Amino acid sequence: MNNIIDLRSDTVTKPSKKMRDIIKNANVGDDVYGEDPSVIELENKITKMAKKEAAVFVPSGTQSNLLALLSHCQRGDEYICGQEAHIFKYEAGGGAVVGSIQPQPIEFEKDASLDLQKVKSKIKPIDNHHARTKLLCLENTHNGKVLDLKYLEKASKFAKENNLLLHLDGARVFNAVVDLDINLSDITKYFDSVSICLSKGLGAPVGSVLTGSKEFIKEARHYRKMLGGGLRQSGLLASAGLYALENNIKDLKKDHKLAKKLTKSLKKIDEIKIVSNDTNMLFIEVKDSEKLVNYLREKNILISGYGKLRIVLHRDISKKDIEKVIEVFKSYYAK
Ligand SMILES: *Cc1c(COP(=O)(O)O)cnc(C)c1O
Question: Structural domain of residue 187, as residue ranges?
């Protein structure tokens, strides 16, 4: 499997030798008793970086988002989010199934924002007919697209004016952070809660963190236990996340650069339509996409999608790999 160039997702990154050494030597305890020093260190680190009051380490981004829904909303409440948002479309309907929380999705704008006028029109009046609109969820990055800080400021003001809580699915928030060359807190300050994946571009094997107020995280811990996410010596995993936060954030820049390089080359091929290229992601459209995907696979290159194809850069992909990918694309269209 070693010479496979896997561009399906940044979740495929494997822990480096150094990270494995860190894991091997991690200090651990029982985290359900609150006694795992590595988990505590990770939670403290994110809390500080996000300038929030508290954080909780969780097995996945999906659980982290679900904890946010459960902790912010009661049964019969409603959250507004993007139609293609992960929290709505790709998390098995957890908010509705587990929390009896109704989703109200609306179309994303081209820049991955939610039009606040459209959001406003979906907020239900308070009367017996309606679910209670409680929460607004944004996603940053979404399909690699970075939300503008001015927009976040507006969204935050809007949420306050309309008595909504504001959650960020920041699975890839650090891609936004390096793209804008800012600090995490420059984004997190606009939100009541933020979920962050450690297991994508940052390169940790497992884990996400959810951050917010003390009270909110206390709730989230309760629901984490309920969902079976209370892990014991999870410092083995948290230590990898901690290592990733200390060492791997800046490397995301390299991923963005390589995505640009690839985009530039693919643009020169007439048969390829570049749909978008933002941060570490690239979406393309071609005729007969299945044929192209199969050809690439024969050449040990994996990409994902049907119709619109997705190519994702990550830390296990080198400049040399991308040069090979460009050659293979060229050879396919030279046939
Ligand atoms: C991957 C992802 C998640 C969920 O993360 P998992 O750890 O795979 O459960 C949530 N939101 C977004 C935007 C994601 O890309």
Answer: 17-247
